[in-house]
Design brief:
mainly alpha, about 65% helix
């Protein structure tokens, strides 16, 4: 089992926890940590939006920094995958080609 398969299993368990306990935070922290591990594994730069926004005083100015890195697009993909809204193949394709997507402004 790879990390993406593990993510899907954890999301399924989390959903069952929501149904049983009425709360979907059953494994949310672990899932969020797993997202970070998966993104690291694919070489996607760490998110530095908070640090740069504090440095420049606004997100708008922070986003102009050449080292600005936001992982929101990829965490959204991981979320969508966990909810069954995109396939594993689509997710892996996007993660593998993250740097090309940045260069072509597809994200």
């Amino acid at each position: 089992m790879d990390l993406i398969d593990l993510l899907k299993k954890m999301e399924d368990i989390n959903q069952r926890g929501k149904e049983f306990f009425g709360d979907d935070s059953f494994l949310s922290y672990l899932i969020s940590d797993l997202w970070e591990i998966i993104l690291d594994d694919y070489g996607i730069p760490k998110d530095n939006t908070v640090e740069l926004a504090e440095k420049y005083g606004s997100m708008e100015k922070a986003s102009e920094d050449k080292d600005f890195s936001c992982r929101d697009y990829w965490t959204d993909l991981l979320y969508d995958f966990g909810k069954g809204e995109i396939t594993k193949e689509k997710l892996v394709e996007e993660l593998k080609n993250w740097d090309e997507n940045l260069k072509t402004n597809e994200i």
